[in-house]
Amino acid sequence: xxxxxxxxxxxxxxxxxxxxxxxxxxxxxxHTSDVIQAETMLTKxxxxxxxxxxxxxxxxxxDLVIEIPLIExxxxxxxxxxxxxxxxxxxxxxxxxxxxVSLFQNKDYGDFLMVxxxxxxxxxxxxxxxxxxxxxxGCPDVPYLAQEMIGQTLDEVPHPKTLGHTLCGYxxxxxxxxxxxxxxx
Amino acid sequence: xxxxxAVVGTVxxxxxxxxxxxxxxxxxxxxxxxxxxxxxxxxxALLAAAVKTSESVKGPDIYAxxxxxxxxxxGSRALYxxxxxxxxxxxxxxxxxxxxxxxxxxxxxxxxxVENMKSRPILIADAxxxxxxxxxGQSSSYDVFTPDAGEMAFLADEIAPHPFYTRxxxxxxxNSEIELIKRAYQFQNASRYLLVKGSKDYIVDAxxxxxxxxEPSFEVMEAIGGTGDTLTGVLTVLCCFDYGLAxxxxxxxxxxxxxxxxxxxxxATQIADLIEKIPDALSAVFEQSDVRSFxxx
Lengths: 185, 297
Known about the structure:
The structure holds two protein chains of two kinds. By secondary structure, chain A is an alpha+beta fold. Chain A contains six helices and eight strands, in the order H-E-H-E-E-H-E-E-E-E-E-H-H-H. The longest helix of chain A is centred in the first third of the chain and has 20 residues, at 2-21. By secondary structure, chain B is α/β, with parallel strands linked by helices. Chain B has a nine-stranded mixed sheet, sandwiched between helices. In chain B, strands 3-4-5 form a three-stranded antiparallel sheet, covered by helices on one side. In chain B, strand 11 (201-205) and strand 12 (208-213) form a beta hairpin. The longest helix of chain B is centred in the last third of the chain and has 20 residues, at 244-263. Chains A and B meet through strand 6, strand 7, strand 8, helix 4 and helix 6 of A and helix 3, helix 4 and helix 5 of B.
């Protein structure tokens, strides 16, 4: 009796979850930099969107997608096309997506502070908040980002989301945001 | 020793054309086919370390396949295509793939091109190309991967297509590298050998840890961009000698640490300042090492 109840309950939960999940879709873009632009624009406009990992069947190697509420698809697509950021496709999703890393690690070197997100690390000199090093990562924009950011302060450096094009660039942007938040406290 | 070794990677300059040829280090710049490349992190740091190492140990000439790419992937795809179409005409003792846009399709075509070479070189994968190799499910086709601690967690996560998606419960195991190493081999996401860079460097042969190198130790190395690239550069040269990949990895790990010893780095030190110390570091390693010097009689 209890077993039967348990089974029914879990089926009910599964169906409920499935109904909830089918409310979501993902926007797939050609380049990660398009995703970053779209996310920045949609978030500014107040849409509740999240960047996520694509499902295995459409993974190519270095990609992000934007998860959207399906019911808002038309409005979101209209806004994106006004800014000329056109997704390759929109796919409804019924399975959990991979989540970007959300774990940050700090290393305090005395006069210097390093913050790490996923495989990317950014280090500043505490006095003056100057970026002194960027390490980790493996995508080709990492050396480029380092070249553009090292030597500048957290205030004056362009946001890595405006310079980066890959997941490593995105991870660096998260580390940068975390560092800015810590330094503003 | 005259046989060349080769490195495939990118330069952070979108105007840098696809080029290939022997690379040299002149006045703290790399030169290839008359073009200068500053030594910063990434493939230029790997190449500079490889040239310095090869000069020190009278090693082979170094050939590079390079293209400009700032992350848009266009340069990487052009270089992948060139490699796929032309690699069969080259012969190298070792071939190291480095900062390339991770792309599974191009990775697979590249691996086919390697199989079509007259003789199969030692294959080393690091950075973005290693991500693609893992995601393709063909890690075991490679001789050495050189992950850092974060990348080791990624290799251990059988479903993560990029370090950015490494699941939290695996990231939390970052202080237990041995578990991560086991897990990477369990799901066939590791090369035959692993050189895991970190506060302790693990040298692994087919899931057996054969050495741990942890001296001298400089915590600030983690903050300095390019210290992983130099390690891969030193290894790329050393593995062309007759010491085997395991011993070459051990000596490379020691050399990278002694390089730091001589540079006395702080978190703001730049990689070019460390690379200069490679000759001193190699001498120190050979003096203290149980292996004879690589310099031929």
